[in-house]
Every structure is written in structure tokens, then in C-alpha cells.
Amino acid sequence: MRVRFDIKRYDPEKDEAPYFQTYEVELEGTDRVLDGLNEIRWRQDGTLTFRRSCAHGICGSDAMLINGRNRLACKVLIREVGSRVRVEPLLGFPVVKDLVIDQQRFFQSYRSVLPFLINDEAPPPRERLQSPDDRERFDDTTKCILCAACTTSCPSAWGDESFVGPATIVQAHRFIFDSRDHGAAERLARLSGRSGVWGCRTIYNCTMACPREIEITQAIAEVKRAAVVGL
Ligand code: FES
What we know:
- By secondary structure, the chain is of the alpha+beta class.
- It has nine helices and seven strands.
- The chain has a five-stranded mixed β-sheet with strand order 2-1-5-3-4, covered by helices on one side.
- The longest helix is centred in the last third of the chain and has 14 residues, at 216-229.
- The chain is elongated and about 55 Å long.
- Bound molecules: FE2/S2 (inorganic) cluster.
- FE2/S2 (inorganic) cluster (FES) binds next to loops.
């Protein structure tokens, strides 16, 4: 099938403003949007710039706006989107070039909630054990791949750069509810202001945007509750 790609281009060093450039590619319905982008870059226009790595929905590097929705280009089949595809960079962060956004603020926010296991007790001879129920408590949020699809779909994050955004709260949730971790109080203290969990207005865009189908709004509600009444 002949597929038309309208791709938002912008090189801050050369262009006064972003513009759309159109390309046509021959693809199968079972090809992915990422295959189309690769075809364009490899055979038509080597200046087209986008991130991708694993091509299997694991690394989170090719999140972009595809026909108006935040998706991973490697997870969207051409038969889902049809013969016209509009591709734009994620919203809310500066564009470095074409489909590549500057993720510095995103990862600064991520690091601010100490996204690693905190436990100063001497390690046991083998792994730190926990029950299946304790593991289940944070299972959903372990699926996050830091693609930024949630944070860049969130109107609260668009309107307030100090808001940490849903991805950061998801990462905090993953450790706050881990029975082996001792850093929950510190993380909850960092998230207890308006730039933390109370910046969330329960709009649900994040949950709808997540390519891993994490119940993000529910996870945020659980962190809000823990911030008020404790674990
Ligand atoms: S390229 Fe890794 S998630 Fe798509």
C-alpha cells in the first residue's frame, strides 16, 4: 500500500518555524510506523531525525505523536492508521530537531524521586525476599519504560514546568510500595507539594497514552493517599 507520511520538521539552527514535509512510502499493513520512518530516512531523506533503538516496545525511545495520539512508532501497525499518517514530536518539551525532543527536564524530574532501592540493612546471603502479595503491590508500575508518552500528554505538565509529571510519580510508586525499600518517607516528602502529586488534576490523559497500559491515574491516587495517611 502507498502510505503518505506528513512529518513535522524543525531544525532550530536553520528554520524560522516548524513545517510539515510529505513523503510517500510503499508498505505492508503489517509494517509499523517505525518501518515507514526508517524507509524515509534510509532511502529518501537522511536528514530526517528521530530516536529509536529496540524496535520492540521496550526502550521507550520512539514515542511520538502519531495521528494526534502519543504512541510508540514501533508498536503501531500501518493497518491501524491507514494510508495517511501524521507524525509530530511529543508536546511540552523543546524540540532538538524534527521528532527529537530535549528530555533533560524529564530525566531531572525522574531522578528527583530517588528511583532506586534504598535499604541500608546488611544484605542477606541471597536476594531480599518478599511475598507474592508484596510483589503484586507495585507490579503495574514496574512496566514503565520512561518513554514520556504520559507526561507529554498531561495538560497539567504542559501548563506548569515545575510539576514532576505522571512518569516520575509512576517511578516513585514502584519503590514507595516495595516492601524491601526504606526510602518511602523521603520520596513522599519530595512529592507532597503542588509540584508533586497535587499537581495532578486526575485528567486521565496519562493512562490513555501509556503504551504499557499502566493504570497511571490509579497509581498517582495511591501515592496521594500515602502522602496523606501513610503507607
Ligand atoms: S524503539 Fe524501543 S520502544 Fe520503540
